[in-house]
Specification:
Elements (H helix, E strand, L loop, with lengths): L2 H8 L3 H9 L8 H13 L6 H7 L14 E6 L9 H16 L3 E6 L1 H7 L15 E5 L4 H10 L3 E5 L8 E4 L2 H14 L5 E5 L5 H12 L9 E3 L4 H12 L7 E4 L2 H13 L8 E6 L12 E4 L2 H16 L8 E3 L3 E3 L10
Parallel strand pairs: 1-2, 1-3, 3-4, 4-5, 5-11, 6-7, 6-8, 8-9, 9-10
Antiparallel strand pairs: 10-12
Helix pairs in contact: 1-2, 1-3, 5-12, 8-9, 10-11
C-alpha cells in the first residue's frame, strides 16, 4: 500500500508520512497526527519498499520476496495503558519502527485482560482473526501466563530492565547495574542520606539501591524507602510525604523517570525553603531532557533493545536458534542538572 493512501487517511502530506514512518530520528510536532499516521499504516498493512530504500542509501537494489511478512503482537505486561509507563511507550514506538525496518507487520497491543481473553478463543474460527507469528513482551510477565502464551505463540521474545529465568528469548538491560550506577554517582557527590522511590518487591533496582549503601558502609534506613508502582502520580505523592519529615534526604533516587517527573511536579508546588534535593532516575525518556532542571538519569538503550528483540524473533522463526537466548545491553550515566554536590 502506498504512502499516498496513508497520507489521505491521516490528512497530511506524503513527505510527512514518510518522515514519521521511515526516519527514526524524526520527532513529529503533532503527536495526534503521528498517531493517525501509524494507525493508517497498520490498517493498510504498510511495508516500505526495500528496493527504493536501498537506492536512497546508495546501495544495491534489494529483490522483493514473495514470502508474506511476519506479524508480531506486543504484550504490555504490567500496565493497562502505555500512558502509565513512558519508558515502554517510547520502547513501543521504537518497536514499530524496527518492525517496519525489518519488513514485519505490527499486530495487536495486548494487556493482561486481552491475553486472558485470547486463551479462551480459537483463532481463525470466523475466518477474519489470524494468529500472529510471534509475541514481544514488554516488561516482566506473570509466571502463570508463560505456559499458555507458549502454547498460543510459538515464538516469544521479552524486553525488560531485569532478566528472568523463563524459557524464552530476552533482551535486557540489568536494573541492578543501572541502580548501582545511579547510586555510585550520588555517593561520589557526597550524598549519604538518599531516599528511594519505586517498586520494592523483588525489584532489581531496589536491590541495587541497598547493595550500594552496604558497599559504601552507609546505613539502610527503611524510613527513606517509599514503595510505589512507579507512576508519575505516585512520585508526586511520595515526595509530598518526604517534605513533611523533619530530617530530609539530600538526594532522591527514583526507580524510573516517570517517578522523577512526579517528584519535580511536587517540588514545583510544595517547596520547603532552602531545600533542593538532588534527583536521579533510570530510563532516559525524551521528557527527561525537557524538565527544569534537566533530569540526570541512567540511559536504557531502547532502540537497541527493540532491534535485538525483533532480530531474535526472526532468527527463531527461521530456525537460526532453538535454545533461549539472552542479550544483555549496557546502561550509561547521563549527567544533567538535577544532581549537585552535597554540602553537608
Amino acid at each position: 500500500m502506498s504512502l499516498k493512501e496513508i497520507a489521505r487517511r491521516a490528512g497530511t502530506s506524503v513527505s510527512t508520512v514518510s518522515r514519521v514512518l521511515n526516519n527514526e530520528n524524526y520527532k513529529c510536532s503533532d503527536p495526534e497526527l503521528a498517531k493517525r499516521i501509524w494507525q493508517a499504516a497498520k490498517e493498510l498493512s504498510y511495508l516500505p519498499n526495500a528496493a527504493a530504500r536501498a537506492l536512497q542509501k546508495g546501495g544495491t537494489p534489494v529483490q522483493e520476496t514473495e514470502q508474506k511478512p511476519y506479524c508480531f503482537d506486543i504484550f504490555l505486561t504490567r500496565f493497562p495503558s502505555l500512558d502509565q509507563d513512558l519508558f515502554f511507550r517510547e520502547l513501543y514506538d521504537d518497536l514499530k519502527r524496527e518492525l517496519l525496518k525489518q519488513r514485519c507487520l505490527l499486530g495487536k497491543l495486548l494487556t493482561a485482560p486481552d491475553v486472558s481473553a485470547l486463551f479462551q478463543t480459537s483463532p481463525g474460527i470466523s475466518g477474519k482473526e489470524k494468529r500472529a507469528d510471534g509475541l514481544i513482551l514488554l516488561g516482566k510477565c506473570p509466571s502463570e501466563l508463560i505456559a499458555p502464551l507458549r502454547n498460543y505463540y510459538h515464538h516469544l521474545a521479552g524486553i525488560d530492565r531485569n532478566p528472568t529465568d523463563f524459557d524464552y528469548d530476552e533482551v535486557v538491560c540489568n536494573g541492578t547495574d543501572a541502580a548501582v550506577t545511579a547510586m555510585n554517582y550520588l555517593i561520589s557527590l557526597g550524598h549519604k542520606k538518599i531516599a528511594y522511590i519505586g517498586d520494592c518487591s523483588y525489584e532489581a533496582r531496589y536491590i541495587g539501591y541497598y547493595q550500594s549503601l552496604i558497599n559504601h558502609n552507609l546505613p539502610l534506613d527503611y524510613s527513606n524507602v517509599y514503595p510505589t508502582s512507579q507512576t508519575r502520580q505516585e512520585g508526586m505523592q511520595m515526595m509530598q510525604v518526604i517534605l513533611q519529615k523533619n530530617e530530609l534526604p539530600s538526594a532522591i533516587f527514583c526507580a524510573n523517570d516517570s517517578t522523577a517527573l512526579g517528584v519535580f511536579d511536587c517540588l514545583k508546588k510544595h517547596r520547603r525553603k532552602g531545600y533542593i534535593p538532588s534527583v536521579i532516575s533510570i530510563d532516559n525518556i525524551q521528557e527527561s531532557e525537557e524538565t527544569s532542571p534537566m533530569l540526570t538519569t541512567i540511559d536504557i538503550p531502547k532502540k537497541e533493545m527493540a532491534h535485538h528483540a525483533v532480530l531474535l524473533l526472526l532468527d527463531h522463526i527461521r530456525g537460526g536458534h532453538k535454545d533461549a537466548v539472552r542479550v544483555e545491553l549496557p546502561c550509561r550515566l547521563i549527567v544533567r542538572e538535577s544532581c549537585s554536590w552535597c554540602a553537608a
